[in-house]
Design a protein that fits this description.
There is one protein chain. By secondary structure, the protein is mainly alpha-helical. It is 48% helix and 5% strand.
């Protein structure tokens, strides 16, 4: 019989999300990891910067285990940062710096997770006072959800850049198909979407005489 180990399970899924997100930067030039691919500016390096901040905040300050020994960076939640400052990298912030910070965040987070029990309590400084008290279990689930969500964003952004897709370096979780199949599949979905989006007649309705009529679009 397998002994349950909820902390190990949660940490495993967190690490899977971390790895899935980070490998989306592999092999790309500086421009591509930074350029915005959505109207709201979503970009690969910005996603990594954001999740690094998420881990460092939730697994450090929340449990009285601060990460920054000196002044935190200008985009940190305690500073007067411009909106969305944690979602993109400035020209002065290198890829190596941000990825390195994320890996340091992993180490700090893992140390907090190893040290504390899942029912250990902390306080999220930036939450409303009445909701600030949380458990390590709650924070772990929250950070896993956030990281997996942004890993999904990164998956789409990377595919838009150069067509690379898949969950992990060695396991893409996609059907084994060549480029021609995927192009045919894409055209098929486009046809289906266009057909479903066409204006259709309204449902039949009965008129006062008792006859059924169909309304024009």
């Amino acid at each position: 019989m397998i002994e349950p180990n909820p902390k190990a399970d949660l940490l495993r899924y967190l690490q899977q999300a971390r790895d899935a997100l980070l490998w989306k930067l592999d092999g790309l030039p500086e421009y591509d990891v930074r350029r915005p691919l959505t109207p709201t500016g979503t970009n690969l390096l910005g996603l990594v910067k954001h999740v690094a901040g998420v881990e460092l905040a939730y697994f450090s300050d929340t449990f009285g285990r601060p990460f920054f020994e000196e002044e935190p960076p200008p985009w940190w939640y305690t500073r007067e940062a411009e909106p969305n400052a944690d979602m993109w990298a400035t020209a002065e912030e290198s890829r190596e710096e941000i990825v390195g910070l994320y890996r340091q965040a992993w180490e700090h987070s893992d140390s907090t997770i190893a040290t504390l029990a899942l029912d250990a309590t902390g306080h999220v400084p930036w939450w409303p006072e009445k909701r600030r008290e949380v458990t390590l279990h709650h924070v772990l689930v929250r950070v896993i959800c956030d990281t997996q969500r942004h890993a999904g964003h990164a998956d789409i952004v990377r595919e838009l850049i150069d067509g690379s897709a898949g969950y992990a370096r060695d396991k893409d979780s996609l059907p084994a198909a060549d480029q021609a199949w995927w192009e045919s599949h894409h055209r098929r979905l486009e046809r289906v979407a266009r057909a479903a989006g066409e204006v259709r007649p309204r449902p039949a309705a009965a008129d006062p005489s008792g006859q059924t009529s169909v309304s024009s679009p």
